[in-house]
Amino acid sequence: MAEDEEKSLSEGSETVIRANKKSAKQLRLALKYVDGLPPAYECTFWLAKELSASMGAKIWELINGNMSELYVNSSLGWNALDKQQELFNPLARYIILNPVDQPDQIAGYSVLRFEHEAEEDILYCYELQISPLHQRKGLGKFLMILLQVIGRRTKMEKIMLTVLDNNSAANDFYATIGFQLDECSPSFEDPENEGDTEEVDYQILSKLLA
């Protein structure tokens, strides 16, 4: 992403500017309003610049294991360098779940950014990754509820994310928690512009936070 485009997304409104100034400790306050984290896990908050090399390696290992094959089998392809640059962007914030009995391991994480796009203030969920060893324990749902609380507390208008068509489990999950095709998704059918859609194998989903 070009530097001027990056700046436009991160400084497009006063609301987004304020959100991007919040520390990990300030974001952590949202935990007071969310239940559902199994007692076997701890939830921590980080700015990208605060991640240690060891944490960064574990974060990369998880997404590479979970997603690389899905990307390879899509039109987007898998470019490790581009994905690393996106993942560890200075504006990225991390919510990391660690097993209490193995605090040096990562059970799952979410990567979020505050952005202003198409005249809207949004919380963009760039990643939601759960380790195969810790799936089906409610961790993904917990993280998504937490993201929505953070979005509301920072006065974002909606939460957005991108999902591959071939990731059926993720598509089913997001549908069950209320996400719908966003108007900016290439395949969105506008009733006023019937037939004006683009054939792609990924979707942009969103959920209003008002």
From TrEMBL:
Q: State if Protein transport is listed as a keyword.
A: no
Enzyme Commission code: 2.3.1.257
Write the record's keywords in alphabetical order, separated by commas: Acyltransferase, Cytoplasm, Nucleus, Transferase
> Where do the coiled-coil regions begin and end?
none
Q: Where is the N-acetyltransferase domain?
A: 57-207
Q: Which domain of life is it from?
A: Eukaryota
Q: What class of enzyme is it?
A: transferase
Enumerate the PROSITE patterns for this protein.
Answer: GNAT
Where does this protein reside within or beyond the cell? Cytoplasm; Nucleus
- Name the InterPro entries for this protein: Acyl_CoA_acyltransferase (IPR016181), GNAT_dom (IPR000182), NAA40 (IPR039949)
Query: Quick check: keyword Oxidoreductase in the entry?
Result: no
Family label: Belongs to the acetyltransferase family. NAA40 subfamily.
- Protein name (database record): N-alpha-acetyltransferase 40
Native organism? Lentinula lateritia
What taxonomic lineage is listed for the species of origin? Eukaryota, Fungi, Dikarya, Basidiomycota, Agaricomycotina
